[in-house]
């Protein structure tokens, strides 16, 4: 609701969250021009985006605290991965290829589209961005049950593909985690499409995606 704040979620984001709902929203002076449309701040995409950033900061802080209590090892090198779910499969993508995690938006199909992976376009803060299906690109099972009673919030990942950002919808985002490079090096080899390896994380089997191959496939799907 405040256009001055930067709501991008990247691995080096250090901007403070602008709690505009406390200044010009329902908990402030109610001067926000979007209130007439949304009635309450919780219905606004800016509020949702701020909540997403806040939750991911908690994830990063928790990881930092875990590392702080770990035995001191100056040789540890980590890599940041965004972990998300499609169907029943958990996947990891390096944050250097990530622009933002955004609330789910309607996808508008395009007539006469040639690529099976191209879902259409989505409106991202006034700009139309191509939307691709990772399920199609990765040859995943489109089904997949969710545990009953689980609170799941689908998201859109905005990825920095060649030629511009691309949106991919996902079923759930776990957060950003710093993974020891030695764990990644020991990941099991996999013949799965655009995959660098498979590793165990938080009791799950995590498919670590090859971002270079994946971004290249995205670009081909748009041509």
From TrEMBL:
Chief place where the protein resides: cytoplasm
Protein's organism: Pseudomonas hefeiensis
InterPro entries reported for this sequence: CheW (IPR039315), CheW-like_dom_sf (IPR036061), CheW-lke_dom (IPR002545)
Record key words, sorted: Cytoplasm
Boundaries of every CheW-like domain copy: 78-220
Keyword Transport belongs to the record: no
Organism superkingdom: Bacteria
Compartments it resides in: Cytoplasm
SMART domains named in the record: CheW (SM00260)
Protein name in the entry: Chemotaxis protein CheW
């Amino acid at each position: 609701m405040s256009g001055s704040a930067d709501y991008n979620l990247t691995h080096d984001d250090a901007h403070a969250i602008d709690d505009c709902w406390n200044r010009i929203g329902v908990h402030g002076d109610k001067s926000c021009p979007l209130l007439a449309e949304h009635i309450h701040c919780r219905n606004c995409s800016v509020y949702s985006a701020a909540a997403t950033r806040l939750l991911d900061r908690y994830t990063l802080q928790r990881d930092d605290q875990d590392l702080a209590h770990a035995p001191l090892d100056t040789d540890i090198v980590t890599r940041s991965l965004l972990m998300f779910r499609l169907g029943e499969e958990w996947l990891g993508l390096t944050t250097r290829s990530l622009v933002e995690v955004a609330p789910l938006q309607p996808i508008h199909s395009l007539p006469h589209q040639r690529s099976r992976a191209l879902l259409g376009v989505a409106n991202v803060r006034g700009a139309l961005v191509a939307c691709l299906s990772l399920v199609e690109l990765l040859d995943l099972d489109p089904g997949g049950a969710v545990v009953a009673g689980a609170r799941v919030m689908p998201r859109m990942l905005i990825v920095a593909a060649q030629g511009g950002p691309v949106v991919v919808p996902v079923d759930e985002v776990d957060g950003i985690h710093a993974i020891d490079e030695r764990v990644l090096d020991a990941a099991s080899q996999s013949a799965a499409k655009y995959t660098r390896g498979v590793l165990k994380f938080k009791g799950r089997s995590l498919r670590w995606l090859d971002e270079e191959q994946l971004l290249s496939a995205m670009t081909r799907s748009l041509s």
